[in-house]
Design a protein that fits this description.
This protein has helices spanning 2-13, 32-43, 67-107; strands at 120-123, 129-132, 143-145, 151-153, 158-160, 167-169, 182-188, 195-201, 209-214, 218-225, 229-234, 245-251, 260-262. By secondary structure, it is α+β, with helices and mostly antiparallel strands. Among the domains are: 1-61, no CATH class; 176-263, no CATH class. The strands form 5 sheets. A 4-stranded antiparallel β-sheet has the order 8-9-10-11, with no helix packed on it. A 3-stranded antiparallel β-sheet has the order 7-12-13, with no helix packed on it. The chain has a two-stranded antiparallel ribbon with strand order 1-2. It is elongated.
Length: 263
């Protein structure tokens, strides 16, 4: 700090101020108090390279540990290297372990989910089929609109391949209100820059309903009347094309945007 004060005096003020570090200046009108006022100014400058709270000196610094501290540093260094080797060994084993897990999973699929409260179940295996419980109406049978068979190989089993010209329609199999808590999602792989994953939306002008859209990011709308009475949530991060991922929209029935989440 003292070096900075004397440099400031010499370069910018054109006076020698070093004497004032110890006593009032003999030849220039600068007192010791004023020297340390300059000193205080530099001492309170937030600098890059310091630790913000100024607990350490700026680099370069020379470590000077005690003997005990130096031994502990050596021990920690060996421990870190051992842990890094263990981590790399696990990473090297991952490919084989992943392949084995996928093979076992394919051979022994998980048990079917509980059917309690189930209204309808739609399957894409062996063609588009639907199974309804007694509470559901048969006219809600799913159908492909605007195209032919859209079934393709999915992540596990068959999947729907939608190109924007066709869609799969299930009519009123599910009816939800803004006070209901519900979630919906899918395994998806995006081959285009934008598209609709799921939509239950009435025709205009109100567009009442909900959806899950993709435009590089994921978007969810929950609409009573657009745009006056509606919620919209959009992810900050971009989602890549050409790889499978699971996306889920979850709503807690609160009628607030904070209760509508994308995971």
């Amino acid at each position: 700090m003292a070096d900075r004060v004397t440099t400031l005096g010499s370069v910018w003020l054109g006076i020698t101020v070093g004497c004032a570090e110890c006593h009032d200046h003999k030849f220039d009108p600068l007192k010791t108090k004023e020297f340390y006022q300059f000193y205080a100014f530099f001492h309170n400058v937030p600098e890059k390279g310091l630790d913000r709270i100024r607990t350490d000196n700026p680099p370069p610094r020379l470590p000077a540990p005690t003997v005990d501290q130096a031994m502990k540093f050596v021990e920690l260094d060996f421990r870190v290297k051992d842990d890094e080797k263990t981590l790399q060994d696990r990473i090297n084993e991952l490919g084989e372990t992943q392949e084995k897990w996928e093979r076992v999973t394919q051979e022994h699929p998980p048990a079917k989910a509980s059917r309690d409260g189930l209204i309808a179940q739609f399957s894409f295996e062996g063609g588009l089929t639907a199974e309804y419980t007694e509470k559901a109406e048969k006219e809600n049978q799913g159908k492909i609109v605007g195209g032919s068979d859209l079934l393709a190989e999915g992540r596990i089993g068959k999947a729907l391949k939608l190109d924007g010209k066709n869609h799969l329609e299930f009519k009123d199999a599910v009816t939800l209100e803004r006070t209901n808590a519900f979630s919906y999602g899918a395994w998806v792989k995006f081959d285009a820059k934008s598209g609709t994953i799921l939509s239950k939306m009435e025709a205009g002008p109100g567009y009442r309903g909900f959806d899950l859209l993709y435009d590089g990011k994921l978007n969810v709308h929950l609409v009573n009347k657009w745009p006056d009475n509606a919620l919209k949530v959009k992810t900050k991060e971009q989602f890549p094309q050409g790889q499978w991922m699971h996306v889920l929209a979850s709503y807690d029935g609160s009628s607030k945007a904070s209760g509508l989440k994308i995971m």
